[in-house]
Structures are given as C-alpha cells and as structure tokens.
Amino acid sequence: MSITASLIAKQLQGELLGDGSVEITGLASADQAQQGDLTFAEKETYFATAEESQASVILVAGVPDVRVAMARLLPTFFPADPYLPGIHASASIDSSAEIHPAAHIGPNCIIGAGVRVGARSVLMGGNHLGRDSQLGEDVCLHPNVVLYAKSEIGHRVTIHASTVIGSDGYGYVFDEGRHRKVLQVGKVIIHDDVEIGANAAIDRGALGATVIGQGTKIDNLVHIAHNVVIGRHCLVMGQVGFAGSTHLGDYCVIASQSGIGGHLKLGNQSTVGAKSGVMRDIPDKTTVLGIPAMPDKQTKRQWIGLQQLPEMIRRMRELERQLEQLKNNTGSQESRSAE
Known about the structure:
Oligomer: single chain
Helix content: 10-25%
Shape: flat
Strand content: 25-35%
CATH class of the largest domain: Mainly Beta
CATH architecture of the largest domain: 3 Solenoid
CATH superfamily of the largest domain: Hexapeptide repeat proteins
Number of domains: 3
Strand order of the largest sheet: 4-7-10-13-16-21-24-27-30-33-35-36
C-alpha cells in the first residue's frame, strides 16, 4: 500500500495543505531530505530550511506535537525486522522450559530449567536465560543479553545487546581480616514497556527484588545495584550508577554520568542534572544539580560565584595594596609630626 500525504494527515489528525496524492517514500531531516521524503519543522526558524530542501511534504506545528507525530510515523516507514516463529537448531533448551510456539529462539541461545518465554518474544542469538526466568509477550532480547536465574520480564520489553539482568549485587562484610561475600539470593522484576540500552547491568536483590517500573527507559552503560526500585515512566541516561536500596518515584529523570547514593528516596517527578552526586533524599518535583547535589538554583548561584572568584581576588589584592600604601603614608606623616 502506498503512503500518501492525505493518509499521513488523516493518521495524525492534521490539516493538509496541498496535493494529498503525493506519495511519501521515506522520512529525513531537512538538510538531507530528497524527493519523496517527509521532513518536519517544529519551529518557524526551521521551516525555511525545510522549505529549501527537496522534501515532498513538510510536517509543521499544525499537529499537537511535531516530534510526537514523527515518533508515531517512524514505524510506518521503518518497520521492525520480522522474526519468524521457531527454534534454531543450535539452541540448547531444557526439557522443562516452556517456549510459546509463536516465539523466536535464535542461534546459540541457552534456556535453563523452568524458563517460560511468551508469545512473539524474540531471542536474537547468544542469549542465556537462567533457571525459572520468565519472559512475557513481545519481549525482544538483542544478542548476548543474559538473564540470571529467576529474572521476571513483563510484556513488550526490549533489552539491547550485552546487557546483564540479575547479576550479583555488590555485598560484602568484613570478617576476620577479609571481605566475606554476602550471597545475593533475590531477583530482578522488570515491568511492561521497559526499554534497556546496551551494556547495562541490573543486579538482583540481596533478599528481595530489584524492580524497574512500567514504561521506564534506561540508556546504555547504566548500573543499577541490588534492591533498587525505580518507579514508572522514569528516564535514566547513560553512565548513571545507583547504589543499593535506593527508591525512585514515578516520572523521575536522571541525567548522564550521575551517581545516586544508597538507601535514598527520590520523589515523583524529581530531576537530577548531569554529572551530579546525589547524597540526600530529593522531594517531589525537585531538580538538583552538582556534587554534592543541591537544588539547581542554589548550585547555579555557586557556579556563578566561582566564575567571579578570579576577579574578586584581583580586586581584593588591589584593595590590600591600597590599604598598605595608605598605612605607609600615614606612618610617614606621623613620623614627620613627631619631629
């Protein structure tokens, strides 16, 4: 079926200006758009660039949100690769595992005892599912994703390459001159509609569970320690680290390269700025920044103060010089008066 401008306008509930029969063959940014492409201009300043391009159709702010509209359109032009139901001959599957007939098990996968894999779930290849792990429907595990024993994955979860779910939490006690390991016997629970980037590590709970809430999106290279609980629809960006037993509310945003201390509570809709070190609880709807993290306005005032510090030092030294000169002049006058 061909995709026309009128079809797109109907799909997005937008107003069409121009020829609705124009066929659209792809999506592209304005600076790369070719004949047949649809591009977008969410701001008036971008429209001139889009209009000068070779794009056949320009999506502008006549729809409620241009970026949301583009996100909804992308799967139409770039559908996911199809994975047919079946089990590759090289896969090793325990006889007690339950694999839905509509699932796809790729090459060199290892599926342990008691594992359940739901309908239309995809294991691309090289995946290892530990005993008693559970995958819901429409789960996608990219190559080399590992699930340790008892991991629970909900529906429509995507986990990217080489991420490890359920590895040991970092638990040790000092005993008789050495660090004795505390066995980590809990699990990881990942709720529906979560996406986890590549090379992330989510540790299982020491006794209970590490939990990732519904709709949360986790970037590459994130570490989540044992017994952390992340709420619904949170955004966790690259290279963030969470220490154990910290709890996040819903709709939190944790920006890149931040470190979150253990046993803390981050309230609903709280935000942590990039490269921050969080060492205290954060109330609801609060933005913090810096090391140690403080309310963003306070941190920014300190940063401005630091930027002004060299000039303040220069002025202070000049005042000290003037004061010393004034003292010398006064001393000379007193000496002459005594004579």
